[in-house]
UniProtKB/TrEMBL annotation:
The keyword Phosphoprotein does not apply. One of its GO terms (molecular function) is oxidoreductase activity, acting on CH-OH group of donors. Residues 170-317 form the Glucose-methanol-choline oxidoreductase C-terminal domain. This is Glucose-methanol-choline oxidoreductase C-terminal domain-containing protein. The chain crosses the membrane at residues 27-52. The lineage of its organism: Eukaryota, Fungi, Dikarya, Ascomycota, Pezizomycotina. It comes from Lophium mytilinum.
Amino acid sequence: MADRCTQGECSKNEVKTPNSYRRNTHILFYGNCVMPALAGDLTVFLVTAMIFEIDPRIIGPDELRADPKLAEAADLTYETSQSGVRAMLPCALSYVPVSQVIPSATIAGLARRVSTPKSSLRDRVLAKQFAPGVLRGQVEYLFDVGNWSQYFKSEPGKVYGTMLMMLQLPFSQGSVHIPPKSAAGPPTMLTKPVIDPQYYGGEGGGVDFDIMTAGQKFAAKICSTAPLSNIIKSRVFPPQQGATADEEDFTDFVRNFTASDWHPVGSCGMGGSAGIAAGVVDDRLRVYGVGGLRVVDASIMPLQICAHVQATIYAIGEKGSAMILEDRRVGG
């Protein structure tokens, strides 16, 4: 317990580990905790980034970073009048139901692919998002000034905008593990974990891929529609292929340029009614089979949510703290 206290937060007779999905699984593996679901249910938002050259009169973060005098002037404008580029909202975003992105006949086919008798409980729960009349924000679109892509290099003197598309409820699952023993010796708590997000992997990975591919066409339509299109000169990544979005094929773009939008969950998920067979912690965030140890962070979420998860993580922290105090009072 003393060793665990160095990695988490200690209260009387208990340790909680708000260490993120990387370190929580690391701690449990290092402590010889053996559970079927440990570290194998990692889920991240999948994201692609379309890049556009936009009106050069627009000033964004890239321009401020490249020109100290411009940044100084922007700072002064904000300090004196609370206006200018420093007062702008960071981005515009929207959560869109998949039914607005993909034809209903196609959605029905996706549902059948992940609702077979052999499908896992998790996949069957996720498949409910395709039921008729269900409106969830499964696909997020976010536009901002600047080049957000790790794959496209900006040209000096040009101003760029980025359209991100993010899949909120992916079927794909990755893993987090400690590395094997090396010539230098066995792994320690300071050894970096081995993280494999498994984009588009598993039985439901093809469904994720099809949604992402179809969703790119919707992203292209957004950017070709006024008033947003009024500030866009051209799409530079991926290059324009057809006269309209419907004529384009984004298969290779999605396959080669999908990245993680982070917000990982699930590597220490709650087991629910299935208990240790399906999770790592119970409904009070206690690690199965380990006395006095809880996980209190995003890794306990068994599924993603259709939102940026930060506020929910704050709530998990508050709820976890309340649970510890409640259990201490009950236990004396």
